[in-house]
């Protein structure tokens, strides 16, 4: 469980980035932070693994304020996936996904076995990919390795900052679907930052709408499309305009024109 | 002797000098890396340190190498030995590219990579060791490579402070007017720089992440070694101290001098006398690096006049055998200079600056020594210290040893002229070849051994002027001739001491002398 209690965050430049932020994320749910660029989504995410610390208020992870946690222990407890993946260019895929196990001093055979499992988990052939370097991978493969790396030490919490943002639309759809299938099995507590409404509706259990550093509303993903709340409605209108005509169905995601979903 | 022959004949000494050169550069680079990399990390971590650290390194870089060696000379521990001075200076020079590239390598690590590392729970130390340093390594190596090539070049100048290495050949060759000797230093130095450049280049390329591959592509061959050779050539030019072209203005006279204080004093006396007696503008180009450089500058018209010593002119320039009769030497030099170089040799200023074989006064008293012949019995236990010119010149070391049958405990130490007496007084050497007009001879407990076999030829100080200059400005002859016979040995010693021992201003000492002599 993750909880924001009256959190303020002021950037070193003095600008308020988060204001009066209260949000509770239940264990096992996928919370999507949705909003425009500059809404404070990424800041909220970084407050969870203490890459940033709140100016006022408190962020609690598993009933302890992040300030009470040892920052290193907290971060190793939380998987972190970012848009550019941040894969280490001088490490092979195997070395990249083994970083956390090695920091945690796992025995070698266990680390090696885990690397194999992880690649299989994200749909990459371990035999073909373990020895490769990041620059030898496609964008989608890199994103999968990034996810595998974040999952390496089986953290109960996963933070994802626009994890599929850098991918082309088809690959994005594919990786997104795989992630969703993975999540139904793993049941992690996941926080995803995105500005893509379709992604929010498809992946989220709940959607937190943010604007200008403030939390506007929280919706169950299934209700989001029917919400009368003005900002949510504006988002929905926006995707309706973009969606191809006649693609509407009872399933919310299918109405977003997600071919991967409607074909399955 | 041709060049190949010279190399073959001197291979063991050249190898030894190469070894010294590698040692100097190697130690300097190790120190520079040990200091520069942590400083670079600091600059990357704390951006506010960038200005003071990079600023200081930048300033160190702009100090001309000979000047930097000079600044380090008076320091207590460092200044005591040539190799220490050289290593300190070379380390300072190597710092800037290493600090700069370390900082640049670390700050250029992808922000996403750094954020991922922090987010995964790496400590700052782990991020530095496992992520930043490996990724910055190619950039750091590029800095080390630039610094190494640079260092190998500059190290040739270190010979000026007696640090040894390949520069010794270059300096000696310049003093002896012998290209083979110059090349014996320059070619191995250039080769060293090229080899270092290629090896470090290969290493740097191997370290680049994008070169790493599961498919093991071969690295392309190294390129750009030419830069290395260029740097060495540049260093050679720097070592020669050639200061470009002089002002060719119609009413300008350029007075030159060699690179020791007496020469600068004589140059200054000439300059002031010309200024007093003519309306010509006088430009001073003092401290040219030795006889050869002065002669070249005269022939090329970069300087119009300087003071030479007859014995030096006879043996080093004219390459004639040594002669003892002062008048005969003067006449021969005057005639040959006129005929061969179109240079006019004017009457002597009066004093004779011959070589002086000097030992500590206490040794002279203890062993009751007055002449070089008497000292021959003791020299096998002594170490000698000589300047470059003395070792290379036909009227120098070789003939001295032969004439007196001298043997020494080891090969002579090659020292800069300014360091000779200090090395002697510090018991680092036991016998030096100085000059009979050196100011310290009267000021310190030093004894000049008599040249009882009259080995050293006369070295009368004679002003030399280009014929063209005298044609264009006939009044210069009268001005300089007014100085004929005016400076005695004792006066020269005294002026030298005022300049070297008492750190007095050369132009002031010259002015006082001219006034006291009723000139100026």
What tags apply to this protein structure?
heterodimer, A: Rossmann fold, 6-stranded mixed β-sheet, 4-stranded antiparallel β-sheet, B: alpha/beta, MetI-like fold, D-Maltodextrin-Binding Protein, domain 2, 3-stranded antiparallel β-sheet, 10 strands, elongated
Describe this protein's structure.
The complex is a heterodimer of chains A (264) and B (520). Chain A has a six-stranded mixed β-sheet with strand order 6-7-8-3-9-10, with helices on both faces. A four-stranded antiparallel β-sheet of chain A has the order 2-1-4-5, with helices on one face. Chain A is globular, with a radius of gyration of 19 Å. Chain A has a single domain, classed as P-loop containing nucleotide triphosphate hydrolases (Rossmann fold), CATH 3.40.50. In chain A, 45% of the residues are buried. Chain A has 264 residues and is of the alpha/beta class. The two termini of chain A are 32 Å apart. In chain A, 39% of the residues lie in helices and 23% in strands. The C terminus of chain A is likely disordered. In chain A, helix 5 packs across helix 7. With 520 residues, chain B is an alpha/beta fold. Chain B folds into three domains: 238 residues, MetI-like fold, CATH 1.10.3720; 157 residues, 3-Layer(aba) Sandwich (D-Maltodextrin-Binding Protein, domain 2); 95 residues, Osmoprotection protein (prox), domain 2 (D-Maltodextrin-Binding Protein, domain 2), CATH 3.40.190. The two termini of chain B are 49 Å apart. Chain B is elongated. Chain B has a five-stranded mixed β-sheet. Chain B has 24 helices and ten strands. In chain B, 59% of the residues lie in helices and 9% in strands. Chains A and B meet through helix 2, strand 6, helix 4 and helix 7 of A and helix 6 and helix 7 of B.
Tertiary shape of chain A: globular
Mean pLDDT of chain A: 84
Return the CATH architecture of the largest domain in chain B: Orthogonal Bundle
Distance between the termini of chain B: 49 Å
In terms of structural class, how would the helical and strand content of chain A be classed? alpha/beta
Average pLDDT figure of chain B: 85
Rough shape of chain B? elongated
């Amino acid at each position: 469980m993750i909880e924001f209690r009256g959190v303020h965050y002021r950037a070193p430049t003095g600008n308020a980035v988060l204001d009066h932020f209260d949000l509770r994320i239940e264990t096992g749910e996928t919370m999507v932070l949705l909003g425009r660029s500059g809404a404070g989504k990424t800041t909220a995410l970084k407050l969870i693994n203490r890459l940033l610390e709140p100016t006022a208020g408190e962020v609690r992870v598993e009933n302890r304020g992040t300030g009470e946690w040892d920052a290193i222990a907290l971060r190793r407890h939380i998987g972190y996936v970012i848009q550019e993946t941040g894969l280490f260019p001088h490490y092979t895929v195997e070395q990249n996904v083994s970083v956390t196990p090695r920091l945690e001093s796992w025995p070698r055979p266990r680390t090696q076995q885990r690397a194999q499992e992880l690649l299989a988990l994200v749909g990459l052939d371990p035999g073909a990919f373990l020895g490769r370097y990041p620059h030898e991978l496609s964008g989608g493969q890199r994103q999968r390795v990034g996810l595998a790396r974040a999952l390496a030490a089986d953290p109960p919490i996963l933070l994802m900052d626009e994890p599929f943002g850098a991918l082309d639309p088809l690959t994005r759809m594919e990786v997104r679907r795989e992630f969703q299938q993975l999540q139904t099995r793993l049941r992690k507590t996941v926080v995803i930052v995105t500005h893509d409404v379709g992604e929010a509706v498809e992946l989220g259990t709940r959607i937190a709408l943010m604007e200008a550093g403030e939390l506007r509303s929280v919706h169950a993903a299934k209700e989001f499309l029917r919400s009368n709340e003005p900002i949510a409605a504006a988002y929905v209108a926006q995707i309706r305009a973009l969606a191809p005509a006649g693609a509407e169905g009872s399933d919310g995601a299918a109405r977003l024109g997600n071919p991967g979903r409607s074909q399955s | 002797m041709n060049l190949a022959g010279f190399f073959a004949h001197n291979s063991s000494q050249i190898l030894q000098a190469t070894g010294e050169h590698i040692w100097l550069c190697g130690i300097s680079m190790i120190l520079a890396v040990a200091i520069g990399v942590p400083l670079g990390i600091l600059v990357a971590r704390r951006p506010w340190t960038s200005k003071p650290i990079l600023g200081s390194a930048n300033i160190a870089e702009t100090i001309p190498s000979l000047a930097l060696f000079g600044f380090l000379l008076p320091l207590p521990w460092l200044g005591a030995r040539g190799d220490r001075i050289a290593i300190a200076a070379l380390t300072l020079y190597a710092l800037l590219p290493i600090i700069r590239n370390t900082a640049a390598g670390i700050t250029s690590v992808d922000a996403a990579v750094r954020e991922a590392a922090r987010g995964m729970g790496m400590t700052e130390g782990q991020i530095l060791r496992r992520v930043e340093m490996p990724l910055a390594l190619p950039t750091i190596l590029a800095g080390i490579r630039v610094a190494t090539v640079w260092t190998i070049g500059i190290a040739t100048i270190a010979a000026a402070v007696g640090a040894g290495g390949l520069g010794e050949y270059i300096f000696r060759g310049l003093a002896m007017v012998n290209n083979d000797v110059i090349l014996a230093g320059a070619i191995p130095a250039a080769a060293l720089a090229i080899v270092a450049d290629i090896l470090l280049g290969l290493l740097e390329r191997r370290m680049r992440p994008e070169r790493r591959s599961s498919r093991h592509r071969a690295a392309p061959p190294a390129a750009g070694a030419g830069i290395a050779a260029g740097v060495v050539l540049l260093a050679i030019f720097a070592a020669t101290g050639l200061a470009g072209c002089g002002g060719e203005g119609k009413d300008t006279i350029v007075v030159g001098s060699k690179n020791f204080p007496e020469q600068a004093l004589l140059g200054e006396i000439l300059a002031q006398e010309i200024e007093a007696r003519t309306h010509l503008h006088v430009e001073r180009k003092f401290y040219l690096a030795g006889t050869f450089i002065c002669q070249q500058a005269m022939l090329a018209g970069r300087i119009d006049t300087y003071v030479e010593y007859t014995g030096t002119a006879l043996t080093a320039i004219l390459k004639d055998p040594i002669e003892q009769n002062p008048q005969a030497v003067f006449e021969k030099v005057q005639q040959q200079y006129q005929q061969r170089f179109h240079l006019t040799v004017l009457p002597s200023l009066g004093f004779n600056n011959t070589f002086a074989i000097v030992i500590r006064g206490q040794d002279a008293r203890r062993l009751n020594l007055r002449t070089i012949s008497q000292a021959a019995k003791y020299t096998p236990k002594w170490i000698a210290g000589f300047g470059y010119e003395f070792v290379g010149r036909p009227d120098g070391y070789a003939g001295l040893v032969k004439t007196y049958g001298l043997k020494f405990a080891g090969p002579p130490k090659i020292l800069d002229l300014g360091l000779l007496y200090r090395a002697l007084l510090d018991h680092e050497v036991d016998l030096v070849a100085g000059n009979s007009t050196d100011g310290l001879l009267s000021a310190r407990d030093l004894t000049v051994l008599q040249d009882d076999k009259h080995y050293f030829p006369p070295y009368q100080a004679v002003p030399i002027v280009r014929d063209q200059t005298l044609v264009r400005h006939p009044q210069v002859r009268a001005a300089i001739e007014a100085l004929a016979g005016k400076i005695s040995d004792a006066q020269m010693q005294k002026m030298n001491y005022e300049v070297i021992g008492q750190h007095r201003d050369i132009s002031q000492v010259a002015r006082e002398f001219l006034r006291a002599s009723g000139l100026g």
